[in-house]
Write a structure and sequence with these properties.
This protein is α+β, with helices and mostly antiparallel strands. Helix content is about 35%, strand content about 10%. The chain contains two helices and two strands; from the N terminus they run E-H-E-H. The chain has a two-stranded parallel sheet with strand order 1-2. It is elongated.
Length: about 70
Amino acid sequence: MNTVIIVLGAPNSSDGRLSVIAKSRYDQAYQTYLHNPKAKILCTGGFGAHFNTTDCAHERYTKQLFY
């Protein structure tokens, strides 16, 4: 069976720094991955006035932490 770890989007700052909730979602996903190293990780999140006002989708900032 294939396992996918989904990291839900959360706000980031105007310069791409992850919010506390975004960082905690990353931390939990990473801990889950350590116990399931064959799992695939899917980061989510896009753009929005109250969510992410940068030129890059939120998922890109989260994904950078994994790689």
